[in-house]
Automatic annotation (TrEMBL):
Top-level taxonomic group: Bacteria
Domain STAS residue range list: 3-100
PANTHER family, A to Z: ANTI-SIGMA FACTOR ANTAGONIST TM_1081-RELATED-RELATED, STAS DOMAIN-CONTAINING PROTEIN
The name this protein goes by in its record: STAS domain-containing protein
InterPro entries in alphabetical order: MlaB-like_STAS, STAS_dom, STAS_dom_sf
Length: 100
C-alpha cells in the first residue's frame, strides 16, 4: 500500500504516484488526498511503478473525475505500461481521461 501525494500550489496541480499496486488497499489514502478536500485545478495520476490495478482503482479514478468536475476535469494519467494503457482503453477510460 503506497501512495505519494504532491501538491504544486503555484499550478494548483495534485500529483498522485502509486506503488506496485493500484487497488483497494490505497482507497483511504486516495480519498484523503483528493476526494476529502476542495478540488484542485488539475490532477496527474502517475502509474510509473504500478504493475497491476483492479476494478476498485478504476472506480477511484471515476470518483476523482466526478469530484474534479466531470467533463470539465483536467486529469492526466501518465507513465502507464503498455498493458495498463490497454486495460484503460478497453474500459473506455481513454475517452474520459488524458492518457500519456
Amino acid at each position: 500500500m503506497s501512495l505519494n501525494v504532491q501538491h504544486d500550489i503555484e499550478q494548483d496541480c495534485l500529483t498522485l504516484q502509486f506503488g506496485n499496486h493500484f487497488d483497494f488497499s490505497v482507497h483511504r489514502q486516495f480519498h484523503d488526498a483528493c476526494l476529502g478536500k476542495t478540488r484542485s485545478r488539475s490532477y496527474v495520476i502517475d502509474l510509473e511503478e504500478v504493475e497491476s490495478m483492479d476494478s476498485s482503482a478504476l472506480g477511484m479514478l471515476l470518483l476523482l473525475r466526478e469530484h474534479a468536475g466531470g467533463d470539465h476535469a483536467e486529469i492526466r494519467i501518465v507513465n502507464a505500461t503498455t498493458a495498463l494503457r490497454g486495460t484503460l482503453r478497453v474500459a473506455g477510460f481513454d475517452k474520459l481521461f488524458t492518457l500519456h
